[in-house]
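Before the break, one more example. Copy the sequence into your notebook; we will annotate it together after we see the structure.
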Amino acid sequence: MTAGTRRVLLFTIATTFVQLTSAQRPGAQQSEQITIKEPGIYELSGLFKQADTVVLVKVVAGDTESYRCAVYKAEVLKSFKGAKAGETVYFGPYVGQRLGWDYILFLRNTPAAIPPEVPGSAFGAIRYAEVFNEGYSSMETSYECIFGGKDIAQQCDYGVRVCTDYIKLPKGTKTSPPLAEETPFGCRWVRKAPFIEMLEVLRDSRR
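Here is what the structure looks like once it is written out:
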């Protein structure tokens, strides 16, 4: 077989392969849009900026039947943005918030009040705000004995559960477990007092 014949044969094989591949991929010339629904990664300051309301609350009631999503009623204990202490806020849509527990919430307002879908709902039509970033902008607070230290007094403290794989805290913030250790959902505990101070700094920087 001459060199010229070999080149013709190779060209024919290559052309046939391209045609077959194109036939197996209809619309391959068209661009495809892929929607990624995974949570985003935010710096704490960025999360604060994206939220309309940032508050420490106590959850006092919840309703998973009367609305198109789970709705919780909470009393604002401390506000960092968009509300006042003592106000009532309604939020959702994720289930699992514990009644009587405290949470730090980063919320986005919805454009209009939402009515109940079940007559006689205790909340009625409400102004409702959403926990966003796949639920990671809701942070449980509780008393935990998981912090470093030689004795119980050092190991036990009020903490905030922050999913630090998605919410990046300022450099040097101590977490339990440490950032190098893998945890369920990428969540770790930080002491509540210094976390509150971070939010106060972000609040004061807006003034």
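Strands lie at 42-43, 53-63, 71-81, 88-92, 102-109, 128-131, 138-144, 157-162, 167-168, 188-191. The mean pLDDT is 86. Try to locate both features in your own notes.
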